[in-house]
Write a structure and sequence with these properties.
Layout: H1 4-13, E1 18-22, E2 26-27, H2 67-70, H3 73-81, E3 84-87, E4 94-99, H4 102-111, E5 116-119, E6 124-129, E7 135-139, E8 142-145, E9 151-152, E10 162-163, H5 166-173, H6 208-221, H7 227-242, H8 250-262, H9 267-280
Parallel strand pairs: 6-10
Antiparallel strand pairs: 1-2, 1-3, 3-9, 4-6, 4-8, 5-6, 7-8
């Protein structure tokens, strides 16, 4: 009997965002419309909206705790084909220090504080409370899996969960970091009869725009799953409401990018989602 779907549902109910994995710990492959997340979480430029892929094809971004999604026909079929369960550590508020060989395990024992540990085929997963950017090969046999990454579920492990140590964060900083380019203000023609006739746009003279940006930030921050899709949909909503009057500034867009990156989105994904949203709206 295949117990993977039942186990996955139980993990999701406990707050762990899960996704089905194929043999070799591979996520389900991207469909053509969503290859490399080019869809921005939607089926097409001409039909913006939630992604309607036939399979959970977005890798780590597909991880979810939503029981309705997990029980849908598409996911039910995927779980039948799954060989193991993956999860999004960052979405669960943790970081996995993946130790891939005995030497790496010995290094961790000498360099990192004790925490929850899970045995793997070749080494161990050391799990800490707290999130960070994911980086592979920070030292021989050591990967860091947290935001925008997935790990294989191998059981609850043993030991008490400890806070993410500075020593682990420092490993990531040894890698070159990507600096987010300053977002550009959206420049589009004012709609006929509005904003461009010398009068000041109502967005500048009231709390309307500020309230909209704050709500958008909160929507991104509150996303428990499908982060990439949520970011795109939020960008789309902001642009559809505020994008045609010329009131969006670099500061406003920067706030949205910052909220998205705090949830694990990369600078490239932020830029792509913004570009795709403007294109979908014909801006």
């Amino acid at each position: 009997m295949n117990t993977i779907p039942t186990t996955a549902l139980g993990l999701a109910e406990s707050g762990l965002p899960v996704l089905p994995l194929l043999a070799g710990k591979r996520p389900f492959g991207n469909c053509r419309a969503c290859e490399d997340l080019a869809c921005g979480g939607r089926p097409s430029m001409a039909n913006p909206g939630p992604c309607t892929c036939p399979w959970p094809c977005h890798g780590w971004a597909a991880a979810t705790t939503d029981p309705t999604v997990l029980a849908s026909p598409q996911w039910t079929a995927a779980w039948r084909r799954a060989r193991t369960i993956g999860y999004h550590p960052g979405g669960a508020g943790v970081t996995v220090v993946d130790l891939d060989n005995p030497a790496a395990v010995e290094w961790a024992r000498a360099s990192l504080p004790s925490t929850t540990t899970v045995p793997t085929t070749r080494g161990e997963h050391w799990i800490y409370r707290g999130t960070m950017r994911s980086v592979n090969a920070v030292r021989p046999g050591v990967d860091l899996k947290s935001l925008m990454s997935y790990a294989r579920w191998l059981g609850p492990g043993t030991g008490t969960l400890a806070d993410l140590p500075d020593a682990a964060r420092a490993l990531a900083e040894k890698k070159p970091t990507t600096t987010r380019p300053a977002p550009r203000a959206v420049t589009v023609p004012a709609p006929a009869g509005g904003g461009g006739g010398g009068g000041e746009c109502r967005h500048r003279t009231s709390a309307y725009l500020e309230r909209g940006i704050a709500m958008a930030e909160q929507r991104i921050t509150d996303a428990a799953s499908a982060v990439h899709s949520t970011v795109y949909q939020t960008f789309l909503a902001v642009l559809s409401t505020h994008g045609r009057c010329g009131c969006l500034t670099e500061a406003h867009i920067g706030r949205l990018f910052t909220a998205a990156q705090a949830k694990g989105e990369s600078p490239r994904h932020c830029t792509d989602a913004w570009t795709n949203a403007t294109a979908a709206l014909g801006m």
